[in-house]
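Blinded run. Sample ID left blank on purpose so nobody reads anything into the name before looking at the predicted structure. Input follows.
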Amino acid sequence: MAGEGADHGTRGACAPRGNRTNDCIMKEETFDVVNERDEVIGQRLRREVHQQRLFHRAVHVLVFNARGHLFLQKRSMRKDCFPGAWDSSASGHLDVGESYDACAVRELREELGMELAAPLQRLFKIDGCPETGFEFVWVYRCAAEGPFVLQPEEIERGGWFAPEEISRWITERPADFASGFVLIWQTIEK
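Blinded prediction complete.
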C-alpha cells in the first residue's frame, strides 16, 4: 500500500477484558443506551455497554483533502476495540445527552486537533449492528489538508490514501480495518 503502509494480521473486535478498563481511560465513560429505534432508554458504563452488546451511539468523520484522498487513522494498541486497526479519520461515542453533530465536531477537535471552518456534511446513518459494535452511527464528511495534531492515546499514526487504494486494501486484507469502517466504506462505494 502507498501512503503510510499497511500492517498485516487480524485485529480483535470489542472483547471483554474482565474487570480491567482501557488504560487510556482515566474515568470510565457513561453512554446513553438506546433501543432498536435509536431512542435513549438509559445509561450504562462503557465496559457494560460493550460487554453486553447494548445499542449505543457513535459518529465517524471522513476527512478528504483537495486531491480526494481520505485521511485514515491507525488506532492505538491501547484501544479496547480494534487495537491497531485502520479506521475513519475521527470517530467516537456520544457523551450522555450529546447530539450526533456536536460529537462529530468534538471528535475532530480531540483526535485530530482540528477546528472546523465550515459545517460538517452528514452523509448517512447506519443502524446498530455487529459490524458497528451495536452502535448507531452517523457518518460525516469534511475537507481539510492537515497537518493534524494526533491524540496519542487514541491514534498511533495516520495517513492519506486514495479511494481506489482503500478499496483494494479492504478487498485484500479486510482484517487490517475496524469492521465499522469496512461497512462505512462499502456503503460509500454503492
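Unblinding after everyone has recorded impressions. The CA atoms of residues 54 and 134 lie 6 Å apart.
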